[in-house]
Specification:
The complex is a heterodimer of chains A (260) and B (329). By secondary structure, chain A is an alpha/beta fold. Chain A is 33% helix and 28% strand. Chain A contains 9 helices and 12 strands. The model of chain A has no long low-confidence stretch (mean pLDDT 93). With 329 residues, chain B is mainly alpha-helical. Chain B has a single domain, classed as ABC transporter involved in vitamin B12 uptake, BtuC (Orthogonal Bundle). Chain B is 75% helix and 0% strand. Chain B is built from 14 helices and no strands. Chain B has helices at residues 3-23, 31-38, 44-79, 91-104, 114-136, 140-164, 168-179, 187-206, 208-213, 218-223, 228-250, 256-264, 272-296, 305-323. The chains are: A alpha/beta (260), B mainly alpha (329).
């Protein structure tokens, strides 16, 4: 059981208020999606949660301890991070990327042993990368690379996962693949906090939505309770038809008439 | 090829290069004469040539090359750019400038350690400027441009010193520092530089895994538990110490630190940590061979090692720059 608590987080850069008094909790066995328009402060909130950006007010706590007080490797063993995917500078092999997920355990990157090797193997298997293990990352497709990064974050075997737009720039099939992997991680006892732009996809896989707009928390609750056409209108300024009739929720968007 | 076979073959190459450097010169020593002199026999002249001139010179070339190759590999890992190198980034020229200033103002007479310390301080000052810049910009182009600026500025100050040089002896000293040479180096010169070499090596060895992690980018490296500030400090101090020590032995020699890591990278699966040892060895070998070239190419006055290194290295730099995929600017 692990818990991440964002406690009255505020972030000001110069005169701009990026985050305004936001409190959110993440525990294991739940998949929380952060949704909101561009510039709402979603990525900043993740960075404050990790300690990558120190908040101006409030604090992020992991199991009650401020994130900033943890040794980096200690933090990394509790919470793994999947930033927006960028190409790697050096085309190292798939196995080496995944092995880097074990950095906090002191694992050798090129020759992980024992528990480290097992974790790397399991992550490679779970993300269906066994056949690509020795490939160099510059020969992979976008979808494959996204899976490699997922495997890297799973290899840490941290109870919590923070992901920033994990399915950005992926085709629908690979979006589903990545979302299923995160869902699987949660079903196996993990807790995931992810910034997602595709509301329909987020509604299918996440348990809870945290709605942000202009640096403020607009709503925080179960998908069925907070995902309404009215909220889509007020947060995103789009008209949406939402149905919870089928096996999975469905969100259909319409252009805001006369909107800018 | 495993890392071990790569390193063993490069050690072999280093041995061959150093033996070749002892063999060839104004008087070629035959293998028999070389062996005799090596094991304490042979003519006294041969012994002098080997122990007092050729071997120290070859070892100096190797040490300088290895220090620069390792600095290059580490800086490339830190800045995530295959074009980063102490010479390109202005670290070598700032070190040479600081050493020259120490000479120019007669400080070097105070203690034998003044010169290496001055070179190391100059190198650290340059790496510090680069590190501060690196924290404020993610653009590698900006960083390289700052390096170009540092090189030009220290070059201008060097030109000023040349301009003001009181006598031809100072002038030739200054030219040696700018162009780079390992002629007439003694074991003593290397002994003076060795504390800095060892300290620099230790710093970089402690940052190896972190440099591998930085392949993922800074955000993700932070995420897996890398202490970014500590890593930056270790690499900057380590590269500064190694480059400063190399400059105190041979003056400013550019481009070695870029070519060697580039050549070995594909052989170690592009892992920055694993480029360290082979890049250092290969850079050492390259410089020993370049120095043999310097000695046996018949020119009216002896070629400077730094000139030859740049003649080979600068085109390689352009080639690597043209092949580069701009991943992050």
């Amino acid at each position: 059981m692990a818990e991440l608590a964002l406690d009255h987080i505020g972030l000001t850069v110069g005169d701009a208020i990026i985050l305004d008094d936001i409190s959110v909790k993440l525990t294991t066995n739940e998949f929380v999606a952060i949704v909101g328009p561009n510039g709402a402060g979603k990525t900043s909130l993740l960075q404050c949660a990790l300690g990558l950006t120190p908040p101006t007010t409030g604090a992020a706590l992991i199991n009650g301890a401020p994130v900033s007080s943890l040794v980096p490797t200690e933090r990394a063993r509790l919470i793994s991070y999947l930033p927006q995917i960028r190409p790697l500078v050096w085309p190292i092999t798939v196995r080496d990327v995944v092995a880097l997920g074990r950095y906090a355990f002191g694992a050798s990157i090129s020759k992980p042993k024992g528990a480290d090797a097992e974790a790397v193997d399991k992550a490679l298997r779970d993300c269906n990368l066994k056949h690509l293990t020795d490939r160099h990352t510059d020969t992979l497709s976008g979808g494959e690379l996204a899976r490699v990064h997922c495997a890297r974050s799973f290899a840490a075997e941290a109870p919590l996962l923070i992901a920033d737009e994990p399915v950005a720039a992926l085709d629908p099939k690979h979006q589903f693949q990545i979302m299923r992997l995160i869902r699987q991680f949660v079903d196996n006892g993990g807790g995931a906090l992810a910034v997602l732009h595709n509301i329909d996809l987020a509604a299918r896989f996440a348990d809870r939505f945290v709605w942000l707009k202009d640096g403020k928390l607009v709503a925080d609750g179960a998908v069925r309770e907070t995902l309404t056409p009215e909220r889509m209108k007020s947060v995103f300024d789009v008209d949406a038809r939402i149905s919870f009739d089928g096996a999975a929720p469905a969100v259909t968007l319409h252009d805001a008439v006369g909107g800018d | 090829m495993t890392d071990r076979t790569l390193i063993i073959s490069l050690c072999g190459a280093a041995l061959v290069a150093i033996l070749a450097a002892c063999t060839f010169g104004s008087v070629n020593l035959s293998p028999a004469r070389l062996a005799a002199a090596l094991f304490g026999g042979g003519e006294i002249g041969d012994q002098l040539v080997l122990w007092e001139i050729r071997l120290p010179r070859a070892l100096a070339a190797f040490t300088v090359g290895a220090a620069l190759g390792l600095s290059g590999a580490a800086l490339q890992g830190l800045l995530r750019n295959p074009l980063a190198e102490p010479g390109i980034l202005g670290v070598s020229s700032c070190a040479a400038l600081a050493a020259t200033l120490a000479l120019f103002y007669g400080l070097a007479g105070a203690s034998a350690f003044v010169l290496p310390i001055a070179a190391v301080v100059g190198a650290l000052a340059a790496t510090l400027v680069l590190a501060i810049a690196a924290m404020h910009t993610s653009s590698m182009v900006t960083l390289i441009l700052i390096g170009v600026g540092l090189t030009s500025f220290s070059g201008a100050l060097m030109a000023l010193l040349l301009n003001l040089a009181p006598n031809p002896f100072t002038l030739s000293d200054l030219i040696n520092w700018t162009l780079g040479s390992v002629a007439n180096r003694s074991v003593n010169d290397m002994a003076l530089a060795s504390p800095f070499l060892v300290a620099g090596l230790a710093c970089l060895v402690f940052a190896r895994r972190e440099l591998s992690a930085l392949t993922l980018g800074e955000e993700a490296a932070f995420g897996i538990g890398v202490n970014l500030r500590r890593t930056r400090m270790l690499v900057i101090i380590g590269a500064g110490l190694l480059t400063g020590a190399a400059v105190s032995i041979a003056g400013a020699i550019a481009f070695v630190g870029i070519v060697a890591p580039h050549l070995v990278r594909p052989l170690v699966a592009y892992d920055p940590a694993r480029t360290f040892a082979p890049a250092a060895l290969l850079a050492g070998v390259i410089l020993v061979f370049a120095d043999i070239g310097v000695r046996i190419i018949p020119t009216p006055s002896e070629l400077k090692l730094g000139v030859v290194a740049a003649l080979i290295g600068a085109p390689a730099f352009v080639w690597i720059a043209m092949k580069r995929r701009p991943a992050n600017g």
